[in-house]
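Archive entry. Fields below.
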Amino acid sequence: MNALRARLRAQRADPNIVRIHRKQALVAVLTRRLHIIKITLFLVGYLWMAAIPSPRLGRGTYIDENALGPGQVNTYWNWGDVANADRYLEQLEGLRDNNATSEERADFLMTEFLKLGIPASTQNYVFTSSAGNVQGTNAYAVLSSPRTSGTEAMVISASWISRTGEGDGTLNLRGVSTVLALANFLKKYSLWAKDLVFVISDNYVDGMQAWLSAYHGAIQSNLQADELELASGVIWTALNIDYPGHSFSHLGIFHEGINGRLPNQDLLNSFQQISKWTGGVPVLVYDHQDSPQTDIPSWIPSAYHEEIRAYAYQSKNVLRHLGYQARGRGSGVHGLFHQFRIDAFTMFGLPATGPHGFHAIGRIVESTLRTTNNLLERLHASFFFYILTTPERFLKIGSFLPSAVLISVAMMFGGLRIWSDCAWIPDLSDKKEAGPDKWIQRSRPVIPVLGIMLSTYMLGVVLFSAITTSWFINNQTVASTLLLIVVSTIPLCALLIPSQDASRAAPISQLLKALNLCFASTVISIITVVNFSLAMSLAILLGIPLSISSPSKTLSLRLAKFAPYIGLALGWICASDELRKALWDWEILGVWFAPFVCIVYTPLVLQAGLVCLLPL
Amino acid sequence: MKSSLDVSLVFPLLVAGRLLLALTSLSDALKHNHQLSSPLTSYLNLQEGIYLFQNGIDPYSGGVFRHSPLFLSLFTTVLPRSRVISSIIWTLSDALGAWALVQIWRTRQRVAQTSRDGLIAAAYLLNPYIFLSTLALSTSTFENTFALLALMFAAKGAASPALLAAAFLLQISLSSVLLLAPLLLLIASSPISQLASPRPFAGNGKKIISLLIEFLVFTVVLTLASALVSGGWSWVPQTWGASLTLPDLTPNVGLWWYFFTEMFDHFRPFFLMVFSVHLLIYVAPVCIKFQYDPLFAAFILLGILGTFKSYPTMADPGLFLSVISVFPELYPYLRYPIVTTLLHLHAALLMPLFHHLWLNQGTANANFFYASTLVFACANGAALTDCIWAGLRIAIGEPQEGFVVVQE
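PREDICTED_STRUCTURE:
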């Protein structure tokens, strides 16, 4: 009773003291458990990432924009049009067999469009890059809208080379003949409220890049392309048709654009509904078929089999998505449209012996065009952030974004903890009198640390300018070994930095680690919104490694710790094919993945390596 | 290390570096940027106004040109208008501002030269918020320069030049009138740091009335000159009025635009009044609390302006951040400098990113950019409150073992 009264009196006595005590207790609890909190955040973050493909996390797709009204129309595409497509296909196969040049092909396509009474033209282009020149000729036609003044347009496109094997050279002859037959068919109807632009781009992606750059007047220093003779309005949506096989069993959606942009999900959902209900063709994400015969160990209760199978299938899709988006690589020709704010995707006819062909794809495209024709305003913002786990299920931004942010928060906590620890050191001078609680403050020399960080970024810039020279591309094996050696020896200069008096100033290695963690955390949390897959990859690659970097006493231990960081920072130099592709993407398409890796990622890992090299 | 920061070497080097940057084509890429120039300070609008003016059309009759007529008179008579020369003029204005800042520092320390001079010049010339705005040819560069010149002359006790600079500042930016009160106090007292020993206002209070009258005379003369240049009074609602009535809702880094895009029209006048008065309410408390150190009061008001004014650019909070370098006595008492820095880092990366996502890439919307400007406001607010805390905390002295300072 007395104790309680005393406590009450104490509380009444001075609210400030109570407040201070409460605050101190809270801070003490948090700082004491910070390690646990950090580990929990890491765990939850990584587990959340692992749970992304889980069927429990997503939800069913729906149409957000009511005006789209997918699948609400009668389609008129019939067997006569299929016969037309077959005629075109025969002629295209003739061109293929005669090894026709790009110009001949484009001239043929232009003539066919002109025969239909649609204004058409061709466009020559040349890209110069350090890997050599790329050239070709596009053909395109503009069917003016019978109902409006042509301020808005929709594109129906096909590239000469299919996306099979990411453009391995398989021809997209049936895709091209579908576009020609559609031109013939669509011009008969007066219901188009937007211009229809038909584009047959040369090669795989470079043709469309040249055409789109010219269409939007974008200046690209290494591109020489003819100006377009025919113009139309603002392009809102684009459908890219990819039909490489003889027939197809499913239509696959490929939607990732370059630099990680995704098209509005309404477009994909409309297509999925139309394909399913109007065309009767099942839809896939990518070309992944859901196989029911997955091997599941028999000791797992059969109640879970369905879920495990769904998880396996969806993780295949999610991983494919990660691969495209993280590298900023479009999953097809449609990806180039995204840079001009055009929502686009590729419908890929999955090669099979049957049952679908021109009849199905024509009806589906017709109905999809009727749907996009309904648009009165741009597709809703807020429907651009999603992960499609199956054609009919997706994850909203709130169910995947926090995973990477949690990792970034854990890293931030780690960095701030080290930062505040750096300011204090236990006073060991008079141990007898003072207890273990006696701490003295020391300075934190930030300027040299920022200097070290800045020099790693400079090194990154130098590295990037080195790998974009034509010398590097032409002697890749020699040059990459040389670069690897040079870049990994430069940080060894850190060994020359003398050890400092730790009682006056905080050791540079600790400060570097603190700022490194804070900065890496900032980068990860900011990238999440632009390119979640990249942020997730960074969270996986940087999260733990940057948090466990630590200096050590002996030279051999320092070097041993440094080596894995060099591997993590520069290992990509050895992946020569991947590197060449990334550089090609950067030079021709402006994908910023390669410069990002050189100038942001590599320096961050090098800083962690330097933490290991620097003296205690 | 210290001797290498000698100002006579560092200052020309920094200015030369900045001039080199100014001559690159960066300006053309940055001058459309909404974060670096507002409708009131945009170079493109200035050019448009000058063109209309030269062709005999009243530039204030449309809704585009919102610069002071003084800019019109300067750019149509004295100053050439080519892009390269403009870049040089803007950069030199920054150099002048940096020089003024160094002078303020020296006057505050009562010494002719210190080892920190170079560092202070660098804090102004290398501040990305400031130099990017200058590269974007935003006229907020001139606002900053005039603000620093006014403070410098006031610190040196040169009343008339200080008031003239303040009058020019008022002409080009109405909200800067907030700085008038601490400026007058500063002229009437001294710039020397009194943060550690608070006391009642020690200057000559009677002088302030005459100073105020002098300022009013300058202002009236400049206003009449403006009216003469533009041939009427139509410029008043377009320039001064714009910062009160917010006619142009082009996104910027401030807190006003989004709020007023969302507002129902019949609430607009009321909230315009609230937002404008909100800026004013800080003046008296800050000036009364820091009456012993008016330079510090001016510094705090710079921070408030940078956070809350109607059409801010990055340069406005940038000025506040650079001026922190003049108050090194604050540093030991700042409570969370790393948090403020990280907030600024996040905001500085998020704002251009969300702006791009909204207006270029089209995947985001206005709410994203607004959210990032809120982060920026938090960063500025954190810097401001931390500086106020530290400014008050100094007076209590070194932390003692077993004692805690509490704010009631």
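CURATOR_NOTE: Chain B has one domain: 3-326.
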